[in-house]
Each structure stands twice: as structure tokens, then as C-alpha cells.
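PROTEIN–LIGAND DATA SHEET

This sheet pairs a single protein chain with one bound small molecule, flavin mononucleotide, given as SMILES. Inputs appear in the order they were entered. The predicted three-dimensional arrangement of chain and ligand is reported afterwards as a C-alpha cell string under its own label.
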Amino acid sequence: MDADGPITTPFTRLLGIRHPIVSAPMGRASQPELAAAVTNAGGLGGLGFSWDSPERIEELVGAVRQLTNDGPFLANFALEWDQHQRMDAALSAGARIISFFWGDIAPYVDRAKAAGALVVHTVGTPEEARRSIDLGVDILVAQGNEAGGHVWSRLSTMVLVPLVADVAGKVPVLAAGGIADGRGLAAALMLGASGVWIGTRFLASTEAACHADYKRRLIEAAASETIETTLFDGGWPDAPSRVLRNRAVEVWEAAGRPKSGSRPGEGEEIGRTPDGKPVRRYSFPSLLSGGQGDIDDFAIYAGESVGLVREILPASAIVRALVEDAAEIMAQRSGHRSGHSTKS
Ligand SMILES: Cc1cc2nc3c(=O)[nH]c(=O)nc-3n(C[C@H](O)[C@H](O)[C@H](O)COP(=O)(O)O)c2cc1C
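PREDICTION REPORTED AS:
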């Protein structure tokens, strides 16, 4: 186990890591380079495997294990699709932290645990948290509605985290949505979280595998430029996501917000994935590094915290700044408290 960092919590102790910071799984934008950078900086790197082949998952797990010298990392699956085969591939390649999003974990928990893995579940209500604890989940993620990407909850992080913490008992809770700096980390800990699960801030890192034009948009965007929408429903219907308002959104709005099937340019090819597959207008894949197309045609997933993101940084620098700033804020606060009690 690494030496303790300045902020230790039940989550860091459970995993034996230095810092209570997870780089959130973000589909194919979260590749081994990003996950390894975060794990090697003392946090926990997340990988999104929801759409990869079992063979590809084995390769990616092998890559992250090599890059981290067998450090911890998290393998994530969105349960909109059956994920048994993909989960089995990750487990057999050595993944020991399995994370689920967007659905019922009951069919998966026993298999993951039998392989010796910890199970992480992203929840959107305290009731859902209660149920997943009954199913044996080891770590809860409370994802508030201000989060980037697909959003599961109607509730804001500020309200959801303490509600989930109230029912979680000894199960560590990670706060997700709206956290991008040390102030957010400190606030999450005050709300009862044991750590933070950060997407958008790590998307604007050197190592994230989204396109350079995507990263540029993140740097430029104001917090008020995100919307929650089901517009990008191709391949993932009725699933609200938080994206930046861009030309694709504006053209659809100007056309009177027509329903799926009769939207402007519906189904036309707007670009290519890094492996050369066509991407159709209004489908959910984003523009990745090595992909082709105009960022203004794609879904630009981003949370409200995008307004706090002003530069692209190496993931290790992001981890360091989060921890140092949060530790300083908390030290100042306890300084104020003791100052106050001395006077009174
Ligand atoms: C580009 C992008 C892709 C995402 N893909 C996934 C995913 O595959 N699985 C998942 O559980 N969450 C996914 N999320 C949600 C994140 O895991 C996380 O909950 C969210 O980013 C937290 O909010 P923040 O962006 O304000 O930090 C994604 C988020 C973004 C921005």
C-alpha cells in the first residue's frame, strides 16, 4: 500500500490508494493512458468498456495493468446493454473493480464478487442506493444531474450526496457531477462523500482520448452552455445526456424541435470513429481523437463544471491541484473553528 495522502477516507483505505479521486469512466474517451495517469498519481483511474469487444477489453486491461504496474483501476459497464460477456472478459483479464451505470445490477453482482472484484454502482436516488446495498455493492456513486454525459438522476449533487450518505452506512459514497477543483472535493467530503468521481475536468486533460476540437470547446465553454437533452438518441434511445449547446442542437431547435425520425439531416453521415466506422447525425458517439468530423455536428458531452475548466492539463496535475487545494481549504476551516473556540 502507498503511504497515505493528506486526505484519507474510508474509500482510500478500502482501496489502499493515496487520494480520494476517481477519473470517471467516460466511454471510449477514457483509455488506459488517462486511467493509468490518475492511478499513478495516487487516485483511481476509470475505464469505460460498454461498447468494446471482449478481445479489445482484454487488450485494454492488459495495457492499463502494464502502465500502472498492476495498480488499481475501474472497469465500467452501462447496463442499457447486456454486459455479461464484456464483464467476464474484464474479470478474466484481471479487472478487480467493476462499475455499473444505467440499470439493474442484480444479474451481475454475484459473478463479479465470485471473481473477487469490488462492485461499484452509480445511483440517482437514496432508494436505489438502499437496494444496491442490499444486493451487496461495495461502493456507491451518487451522480447529480449537473454531471456531463448521460445523466441518471433528476437531483442535484448537493442534495443527492447527503441523501445517499444517509442510507449508505459503512459503504463509501463518491460524489459525481459538478466537481472540478479542490473546492468541489472539499464540499463533497463535507456532504458525507468519501471521494469524488470526476468526468468533465479529466476530459480536458492531456491524456483524455477525445478530439482536440472537443477539448478546445471544453476550455471555451461557460457553465450556462450545457443542456440536458435526449437529442442524441441514435443507438441509445430515451437516455438524457448533458451536452454543450452547439450547431447540431441549434439547427434542431430552429426547425421547431421535431421528433426523432424527422429531424434536419437525420441519419446522414457526419464523420468517422477512430476505427473508421461511420457516425450518423443524432447518434450518441462523440468525436474522439483519431476520429473524423466537425465537432459542431456531434454530441459534445460536458457537465456544468465545464465552466470551471480553463486549461488542458496533465491528469497528474489535476489530481495534485485537487488534493492540495482541498487540503488547504479544510485546514483553513479547522483553523477558523479553533480560532473561534479560543475566543469564545
Ligand atoms: C464524455 C463522457 C462520457 C461518459 N461516459 C460514461 C460511461 O461510459 N459510463 C459511466 O458510468 N458514466 C459515463 N459518464 C458519466 C461520468 O462517469 C460521470 O458520472 C460524470 O462525468 C460526472 O460529472 P462531471 O462531468 O460534472 O464531472 C460520461 C461522462 C462524460 C462527460
